Amino acid sequence: MINRTTCFALIATLLIWSGAATAALEPLEESTEVSVNQTQLPVNSASHVVIRRSGNREPLIWSVDGLTTYYIGFGTGAVSLKELRHAVRIRQGEMLLVAVSTETGKVSRIVLDVPTQ
Question: Exposed/middle/buried for 98, CB within 10 Å: 0-12, 13-18, 19+?
Answer without folding.
Answer: buried
